[in-house]
Every structure is written in C-alpha cells, then in structure tokens.
Model the fold of this input.
Amino acid sequence: MIKPIYLDYNGTTPHDPEVLDAMRPFLELEFGNPSSSHWYGIKPKQAVEAARRQVAGLLGCLPEEIIFTSGGTESNNHAIKGIARALRKKGRHIVTSAFEHPAVLEVCRYLEGEGFETTLVEVDTKGIIDPEKVQRALRSDTILVTIMHANNEVGTVQPIAAIAELADERGIVLHTDAAQSLGKIPVNVKVLGVDMLSVAGHKLYAPKGIGVLYVRKGLAPEKFCHGAGQENGWRAGTENVVGIVGLGKACEIAARDLDVNMDCMKKMRDQLYEGLVAGTNDVRLNGHPDLRLPNTLNLSFKGLEANRLLEEIGLEVAASPGAACHSGDVAISHVLQAMHVPVEWAKGTLRFSTGRMTTAGEIDQAIDVVVAAVDRLRGT
Ligand SMILES: Cc1ncc(COP(=O)(O)O)c(C=O)c1O
Done:
C-alpha cells in the first residue's frame, strides 16, 4: 500500500531510528524496575538518570529540575494546577492567552471552579502576543502567567523572554508550553527566563505517552501524584523507562542536529508554500511570515471547506484541518478565531507541517495533489 505523504509533524512524529535503537534493550532485555535495589534495577535506573541529563542538556537546566511525565497535557496540568494551588494564599489570578492549546485553556477553566480567575490576553491578527498586553493584564493578585512558546496550528513563536522580564519584576511565576518548539528552534530555559516549561515527547521523534516538566529549582508547585516517591517525590509511579530513554535520546539528537533540521524543515515548508501560491489563487498564510516555527505552514483557501479539501487529498497527502463543517455549520478553530481570520477564509484552512524526514520529492508531489484538488473543488 502506498501511504499518503506525511505533512502533519505538528500532530505527531515518527520514531527516530536512533531513538528506536536506544529504546530496544529496555523493551527486550532490561525490564527491571529502576527503584529495585537488586541487579535488575541498576541499568534501568542508570538509563533514567542518563536521559534526565540529556533532556537537561537540551533545555540548559539542571538534571534535578527535570520531572518525567506522561506528555504535554500532563505537564501543563501539573504546572498550572500545582503552582496555582501552592500559591492560592498569595493570589488567585492567572494570565494566559486566547489561543493556547486546550491542555492549558481547559486547565485554567477548571481552576475557575476552585475560585481562580483567568484573563485571556488577545493575540494580534498575525498570531503574536504583545508583551504590553500581558503587562496590562497583570494584577497585584496575579500568581501565574502561562503563555505557549510556539502555537501548534499557525506556528507563531511568542516573545517569552520579554514576558519573562515583566513576570520576574513582579515575582510572578512564568510557565510556557514548549510542546511544539522543542527540536524546531532553540529552547533554553535560562534564555527564555521561564520558571516552568512543558515538553511532549511525541512531537520530538520520541514515543507517545512521555513528556517532561521543567521546574526551576526552589519553586514548589503542589505534588503531582502521591505515592511511592519516584521523581524526587514530585510524581509517584513506576517510571516509563522505555519512553524516558527514548525522550532522552531524542533530546540529544535535537541538540546535536538542530541547525541542520531547522534548515531542512524550513526549505521544505517554503518550497511547499511557493508551489501552492504559484499553483492556486486566493490562498493566504495564517501566522507571522517570520516569527514562526520553521516547519509550519497554515494556509486558507478562500471559499473552500477544509474537510472537503482533505477528502480530496487524503489518500495522497496527510495534513490537518483548521475548521470543521457539519451540516452547514462551521466550527473554526479557536486559534483562527483568536486571530480574527475572516470566516470565508478560515473555513478552508489546512495546516501542513514538515519534519526532518520530509524530502523535496514529497513536497513536489504534495503541491501537484493539492493544486489539482483545489482546482477540482473550485471547478477551474
Ligand atoms: C502546544 C501543545 N501543547 C500540548 C500538547 C499536548 O501534548 P500531549 O499530546 O503529549 O499530551 C500538544 C499536542 O498536540 C500541543 O501541540
């Protein structure tokens, strides 16, 4: 069977072959529990600690500041709930943005039920958050600012370092969701100036179900999970050794190959953009032209419906819709809504995202497929 060309690397990534090689011994041989004091526990324990150093190396932090979780959603939950509950006596106000991932927005909404208040800072039409707007949202009872590093749909990269200065001046904790940025652009917790940062392994050529929360030393969110005391007592539960080893290796590769990968993803993305703009009319780019992940291309095809377009190309190209139409109603993604993309454009939005495995031949084929589908649907 010929598979569709994969252009949905923001959705998830395949395993890197080096990641698979690193994980294999822990699937086949080294089944021990890292907490066991006998022989079987030694290698798994060493592997978990080696992975912690690999992740810390990529993020520019101390290994003890790394907590392994089950993924981006869990990291965001723990960061936001954990710090909000720990600081509730100090204040109950959280600042976030209107176009965060649901793994942040839903957590903030949930906390409103516990008496917290959330302010959603608006993004501009290019998908960028102005630090001045964050500043205006801050109050004397603000305890947490959580703003994503890069947006998953349009790829825009936020001015986190500038926001960090504002938060730091007022002693407010800053969390960022870096699920989409890690491995695609430099991510260093010191350069960004963040107190907490979330990572999702499966966006980084590591397995699904593994992630990381960086928590700056000295910060004390509530414990994530009570039990036997793994992860220095932060998150109890026997470690996902295979996933941790895979994520460690993925971080080592990301640090080693970042420049080459950025260059490759960007070349492929730009080739796709140029081909689609040359081959179709009435197409617009959503997101900032420059302040954007090197792999993300969010395009609206005016007058078309995203799901119809995906049906036309689905056997040949795998991409993601930015809107869904059901019996005449259109549900436009909250990201496009936050950016005020006009409905007649937003309805026909697709997100293409390239990866380090994407080839120029695949992009040429994808251009032909998408251009032909747009022409068929428009009857041109
Ligand atoms: C920005 C962002 N945050 C969080 C998540 C959730 O991560 P996970 O799938 O590992 O729970 C995703 C995944 O789509 C994401 O793109």
Q: What stands out?
A: The longest strand covers residues 296-301. The mean pLDDT is 97.
